[in-house]
Design a protein that fits this description.
mainly alpha, three-stranded antiparallel β-sheet
């Protein structure tokens, strides 16, 4: 027997005209650009809804926020929460990476200024941020972070179900008897 909880929920409201038709990514971007992503004290950055927070010890909170935005723009997945991108870039908060991150985030900000923006994090449209990333894609900073994101992001077991990946199959007898031959569209 199904139970309806419709009576407990408040009625849905129409979005305000200025928010109608914008994507989740754009809404998040605006939240970041308007300060909804907050630097709290020295070395701590948090999302206002407490969905994620990160303490940084070597790099600045602003640099961490820039890395998170860069990660999201480099490997964009609307269904993956920011907290997974934070985990993916957290390793750059180290003495070994301090200079590279400082120089790299400064280069992103300079490229953003060259395109008429205040800094990388304040750019409103993903398309415009991608242009800034393209301007620095040949740098060691960009290539290092991009390469690190492949494992830093996609090796997180909590996001595998979002992609339909069940993990390694060797311990379960391999793929042959576990869906290897279930392609019905070929």
């Amino acid at each position: 027997m199904k139970h309806s909880h419709a009576t407990r929920r408040p009625p849905l409201r129409e979005p305000s005209p200025e928010l109608a038709g914008i994507s989740r990514r754009e809404l998040l971007r605006r939240a970041f650009a308007t300060g909804a992503m907050t630097v709290i004290g020295a070395g701590f950055i948090a999302a206002p809804d407490a969905a994620w927070a990160a303490e940084v010890t070597v790099i600045t909170p602003e640099q961490m926020a820039t890395l998170v935005q860069m990660a999201r723009d480099t490997y964009p997945h609307d269904r993956i929460a920011d907290k997974f991108y934070v985990v993916a870039v957290k390793g750059y908060d180290s003495e070994d990476n301090k200079a590279m991150v400082a120089e790299g985030t400064a280069a992103l900000d300079e490229a953003a200024k060259a395109q008429g923006h205040e800094n990388y994090a304040s750019i409103g449209w993903e398309e415009d941020r991608v242009k800034v990333l393209q301007a620095v894609e040949g740098t060691t900073f960009f290539q290092t972070v991009r390469a690190g994101l492949v494992t830093g992001l996609y090796n997180q077991k909590d996001i595998w179900p979002l992609f339909g990946y069940e993990g390694e199959s060797f311990s379960k007898g391999g793929y042959i008897n576990r869906g290897f031959d279930d392609i019905d569209w070929l």
